[in-house]
C-alpha cells in the first residue's frame, strides 16, 4: 500500500518536470496492448530516456492536476508460518529545520520508492526460489502476484514512474526488455516484470478496502487523517515520532487487510470451483476464462494420420482442435466475421427499459435476481453462422424451426392496444430505442420475431443468419448463483459471483476492435540525442 501527498498546481508540476515532458503527444496512441520495450537499434541510456518520456507525457501530465508523490509505502505477505512485512517512508531529517522545497521532497520520495521496489522485487525472487529452486524472476512456471487496491487509476502510475525513472532498477532487473504494461484508455491494469505481476484488487472486487475487510474479516482500517496533507501537515507528521509511527502503522495495516481479504477470496473460489481467481487481472477476464476452462468443451476433430513405412502405409487415428469443421461441430463457438458482426450488432438492443408513472393500490413490486444470467440459461446461438440474403417464401415450419437473426419489414396490427414487441433504434436527437407502432425494418432475434407474429405482426423476411440453439451456460449459471445464495446481498463474495455472471454475458457481446501498437519512441529525437551528453539522474 502507498500513501500520497499532493500540492501545487499543474503548471508548477510541468515546470519542475520539464526534462520529462518534451515528447510529442502525436507519438503516443493509447489503446489496449502489452507495451513490450525492445529497441535494439538504440543504446541503453537512450532507450531508458525514451521510456521515461513516454511515461511522463502519456500518464502524469495528462492525468494529474497536482504534484503527487508517495510519502509512505508498505508490503505484507505470509509464507508458511512466517509473516513478512516492511514499511518505508521519507526520511524525517529533511523536516528538521524548516519546510523543505517540493523538489527536495520529490527527490526523497523517489529514493524511498526505489528502495521499496528493490526490496519488493527481491522478496518476490526469494519466494519463487523457495517454492522451487529452478524458479526465478525471469524463468519458471510459478508467479508472484502483488495486489494494490486501485492500481489502475492511482498506485500503478507511481510504481511505473519509479520503474522507468530509476536507472538502478532498470539495470538490476533488465526492465527495458522484461517490463510489460497492460493499459487501456489511460488506466494501468497490470505491470509485469517477468514472473512478478502487479495487479489491481479493485478490478476484482469494486468496493472500498474498508468495506471489503469489514464484510469479509470483520476488521476495519485504522484511524489516521490522510486527507488534504499539505506541506505544514507533512512537517508536523515527520517531526512528531508518535504521529509518524501511527501513520506507518496505518499504512502497514492496510496491506495486511488487503492480503487477508484476497487470500480468503482466493481460497473460497478454489474450494468451491477449483479455480484460482488471481490468475486474471480483471473480473471480465476471470469470467470468460473461467467459463472456457471449466464449462466449455473445446471441440476436436478426429482424423486419420498416414505414414509411409517399408511394409506399406500405416494409419493412426488422431485428433486436433485446429481441424474443427463447421459441419461437424454445431455446439462450438466460432468467431464472427466483421460483416456478420455488423449485422448482428444492429439486432443487439440490450434489455428493455421504459419509464412509466405506476399507480396502484394493494399492489406488488417484483425484482428479478440475476436477470442477465437467467437469460443465458435459454438456448444461445452456437455453431458457425449461415448467412442468406436471397428472398424466398418461408413456410410455417421453416419459420418456427429457425433459430438465429432475421432482417425483416414488419407492420403492427391495426387497433393494437398492448405493449409493442419490436424496438426501433433512432439516431440523434432521439438517440435511443423506441417501442412504437406502425411500420419498421431491421435485424431482430428470431425468438422475438416469433412472439411478434403471435401478437398479430405482419412480417416480410429479407435476410437471415442461422445458428444452432444450445444451452451451454446452464450449469455455469447454476453454480455461480448457488455461491450468491450462500452469502447475503452486499457481501463481497456475493458481489463477485454476480459480477462474474454479468461479465460473462457482456464479454460475449463485446465489440470487435482494432488495437494499434503504442509508439514508444521518436526516431528523429533519438538521432538528435546521439550527439548529446545524457545526464544520469536517479
UniProtKB/TrEMBL annotation:
Pfam families: DNA_pol_B_2 (PF03175). The keyword Plastid applies. The keyword Signal does not apply. It comes from the Eukaryota. Residues 18-45 form a coiled coil. It is an enzyme of class 2 (transferase). Belongs to the DNA polymerase type-B family. This is DNA-directed DNA polymerase.
Amino acid at each position: 500500500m502507498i500513501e500520497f501527498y499532493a500540492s501545487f498546481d499543474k503548471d508548477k508540476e510541468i515546470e519542475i518536470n520539464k526534462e520529462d515532458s518534451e515528447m510529442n503527444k502525436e507519438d503516443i496512441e493509447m489503446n489496449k496492448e502489452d507495451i513490450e520495450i525492445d529497441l535494439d537499434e538504440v543504446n541503453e541510456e537512450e532507450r531508458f530516456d525514451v521510456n521515461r518520456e513516454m511515461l511522463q507525457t502519456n500518464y502524469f501530465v495528462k492525468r494529474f492536476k497536482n504534484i503527487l508523490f508517495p510519502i509512505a509505502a508498505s508490503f505484507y505477505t505470509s509464507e508458511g508460518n512466517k509473516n513478512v512485512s516492511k514499511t518505508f517512508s521519507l526520511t524525517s531529517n529533511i523536516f528538521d529545520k524548516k519546510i523543505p522545497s517540493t523538489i527536495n521532497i520529490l527527490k526523497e520520495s523517489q529514493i524511498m520508492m526505489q528502495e521499496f521496489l528493490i526490496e519488493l522485487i527481491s522478496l518476490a525472487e526469494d519466494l519463487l526460489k523457495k517454492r522451487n529452486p529452478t524458479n526465478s524472476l525471469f524463468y519458471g512456471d510459478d508467479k508472484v502476484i502483488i495486489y494494490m487496491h486501485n492500481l489502475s487509476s492511482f498506485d500503478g502510475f507511481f510504481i511505473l514512474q519509479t520503474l522507468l525513472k530509476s536507472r538502478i532498477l532498470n539495470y538490476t532487473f533488465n526492465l527495458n526488455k522484461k517490463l510489460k504494461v497492460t493499459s487501456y484508455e489511460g488506466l494501468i491494469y497490470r505491470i509485469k516484470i517477468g514472473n512478478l505481476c502487479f495487479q489491481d484488487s479493485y478490478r476484482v472486487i469494486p468496493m472500498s478496502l474498508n468495506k471489503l475487510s469489514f464484510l469479509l474479516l470483520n476488521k476495519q482500517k485504522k484511524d489516521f487523517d490522510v486527507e488534504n496533507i499539505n506541506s505544514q501537515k507533512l512537517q508536523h507528521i515527520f517531526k512528531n515520532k508518535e504521529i509518524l509511527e501511527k501513520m506507518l502503522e496505518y499504512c502497514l495495516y492496510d496491506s495486511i487487510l488487503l492480503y487477508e481479504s484476497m487470500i480468503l477470496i482466493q481460497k473460497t473460489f478454489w474450494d468451491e470451483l477449483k479455480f484460482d481467481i488471481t490468475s486474471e487481472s480483471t473480473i471480465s477476464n476471470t469470467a470468460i476464462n473461467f467459463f472456457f476452462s471449466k464449462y466449455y468443451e473445446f471441440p476436436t476433430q478426429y482424423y486419420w494420420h498416414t505414414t509411409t513405412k517399408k511394409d506399406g502405409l500405416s494409419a493412426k487415428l488422431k485428433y486436433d482442435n485446429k481441424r474443427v469443421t463447421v459441419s461437424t461441430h454445431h455446439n462450438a463457438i466460432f468467431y464472427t466475421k466483421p460483416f456478420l458482426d455488423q449485422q448482428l450488432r444492429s439486432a443487439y438492443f440490450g434489455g428493455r427499459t421504459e419509464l412509466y408513472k405506476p399507480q396502484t393500490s394493494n399492489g406488488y413490486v417484483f425484482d428479478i435476481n440475476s436477470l442477465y444470467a437467467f437469460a443465458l440459461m435459454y438456448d444461445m446461438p452456437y455453431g458457425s453462422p449461415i448467412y442468406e440474403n436471397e428472398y424466398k417464401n418461408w413456410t410455417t415450419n421453416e419459420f418456427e424451426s429457425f433459430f438465429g437473426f432475421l432482417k425483416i419489414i414488419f407492420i403492427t396490427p391495426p387497433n393494437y392496444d398492448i405493449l409493442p414487441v419490436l424496438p426501433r433504434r433512432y439516431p440523434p436527437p432521439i438517440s435511443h430505442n423506441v417501442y412504437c407502432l406502425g411500420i419498421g425494418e431491421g435485424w431482430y432475434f428470431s425468438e422475438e420475431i416469433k412472439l411478434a407474429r403471435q401478437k398479430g405482426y405482419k412480417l416480410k423476411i429479407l435476410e437471415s443468419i442461422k445458428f444452432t440453439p444450445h444451452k451451454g451456460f446452464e450449469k455455469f449459471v447454476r453454480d455461480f448463483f448457488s455461491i450468491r445464495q450462500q452469502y447475503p446481498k452486499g457481501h463481497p463474495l456475493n458481489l463477485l459471483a454476480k459480477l462474474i455472471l454479468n461479465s460473462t454475458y457482456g464479454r460475449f457481446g463485446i465489440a470487435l476492435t482494432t488495437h494499434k501498437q503504442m509508439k514508444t519512441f521518436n526516431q528523429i529525437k533519438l538521432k538528435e540525442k546521439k550527439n548529446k551528453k545524457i545526464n544520469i539522474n536517479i
